[in-house]
Amino acid sequence: MSELHIVGLAGNITAPSKTRALVGQALGLAGDALHARTTLFDIADFGEDLGRARRAGDLAPGAQRNLETLLRADALIVATPVYKGSYPGLFKHLIDLIDPAALIRKPVLIAATGGGEKHALAVEHQLRPLFAFFEARLLSTAVHVSDRDFSEGRLGDGPALDRLARAIEEFTTIFPGAARIRAAAE
Ligand SMILES: Cc1cc2nc3c(=O)[nH]c(=O)nc-3n(C[C@H](O)[C@H](O)[C@H](O)COP(=O)(O)O)c2cc1C
Q: Is the whole model's pTM more than 0.85, yes or no?
């Protein structure tokens, strides 16, 4: 079987970004568990003109290539910061450029970072329905982390990291062949 490619999308619009750090950490775990190639994009990778694009073809050539790479991935890890109880508008604008049929049955891990716990269910009430629209294969474990779960720019040991590891484990049930190859290499 050919190498899996897992693409991460961080819906942050600022840098540095805890959301980007979370997606990077999740890709590291998933890449290791599945012996997969990984690529990480954030909103800046879709160009300064993203907000003006009415369709994917309006994006700059590099941004179009990034979107194509994302859509061709075997699986996605998508995280956004929580803004006013939901995802940022520019992230939604990028998602609005995606063909409704482009993510059917694509395995997707959804995650969010928030300032605190108050809007932890944004991941269930906002991100899950968004990807359900696309008929994506959403992992049942979604991950919300807050500022205090980070230590030196990474998720430290604790319930948030445990939950992320549980979500990644779900990928191994979707791609058992890749997980077996990984296990055999140990
Ligand atoms: C405009 C704005 C709105 C925000 N709204 C919320 C919110 O409703 N709930 C919450 O928990 N955190 C909220 N936050 C905090 C961010 O979600 C949190 O700091 C997040 O980790 C930032 O991610 P980033 O470092 O990737 O930008 C908000 C931050 C900004 C800038």
A: yes
Beta-strand relationship, 150-151 and 154-155: antiparallel
Structure-token pair, residue 151: 């230590």
* Closest-lying ligand 1 atom to the alpha carbon of residue 85: 8
pLDDT one-digit tens code per residue, 25-48: 999 999 999 999 999 999 999 999
Q: Report the domain count for the chain.
A: 1
Residue 183 reports pLDDT greater than 60: yes
Q: Are 32 and 182 in contact (CB under 8 A)?
A: yes
Question: From the CA of 86, how far away is ligand 1's center (Å)?
Answer: 9
Identify the domain containing residue 152 by its residue range.
5-185
Query: Which whole-number Å values give the CA distances from 88 to 34, 45, 79, in the listed order?
Result: 30, 16, 11
Span from the CA of 114 to the centroid of ligand 1 (angstroms) = 5
Report the CATH number that the domain containing residue 23 is assigned in CATH. Answer: 3.40.50.360
